[in-house]
Amino acid sequence: MKLLIVDDSLIMRRAIERCVAGDKFTEIRVAVNGREAVEEFERFKPDVVTMDITMPEMDGLDAVARILRKNPGAVILIVSALADKSTAVEAIKRGAAGFLLKPISIESITEALDDILSD
C-alpha cells in the first residue's frame, strides 16, 4: 500500500513515517502543504493520505475537498492539533475518513489507519 503524509512540520512527517514504516505501507511520500498534496496525490495515487489542517499555501480542509473532487474514493485521515469539535466535524463533512488529534503515538495512528482501511 502507498501512503502520502501531508504536514508542514518535518518533525511530524518523520514521526508519522516512523510510526507506520515497515507496517502495511510499502511506499511513502510526503508533501509540505495542501497545494503540494493535491499535486502529489495525482502523481502518486496513494491508498491513504494523512493530512494536517493548518499549513501554508492551502490548508488541509481545502486540499481534502480538492482531492475528493478528483477522486471521490480517496481515503484521508486528518491528523491535527486543532482540538475543537467543530474542526473535526468540518473535516468529516468535507469527506475525511477520520480525525486523529496530535500528539500521536504508534498505537493511535496504527489504530486510526486500521479503522479507516477496514471501512
Secondary structure layout plus pairing:
Elements: E1 2-6, H1 10-20, E2 27-31, H2 34-44, E3 48-51, H3 60-70, E4 76-80, H4 85-93, E5 98-101, H5 106-118
Parallel strand pairs: 1-2, 1-3, 3-4, 4-5
Helix pairs in contact: 1-5, 2-3
Task: Please tell me about this protein's structure.
- This protein is an alpha/beta fold and 119 residues long.
- It has a single domain (2-107), classed as 3-Layer(aba) Sandwich (Rossmann fold).
- Helices cover 46% and strands 19% of the residues.
- The chain is built from 5 helices and 5 strands; from the N terminus they run E-H-E-H-E-H-E-H-E-H.
- It has helices spanning 10-20, 34-44, 60-70, 85-93, 106-118, and strands at 2-6, 27-31, 48-51, 76-80, 98-101.
- Helix 1 (10-20) crosses helix 5 and helix 2 runs parallel beside helix 3.
- The longest helix is centred in the C-terminal third of the chain and has 13 residues, at 106-118.
- The two termini are 16 Å apart.
- The mean pLDDT is 93.
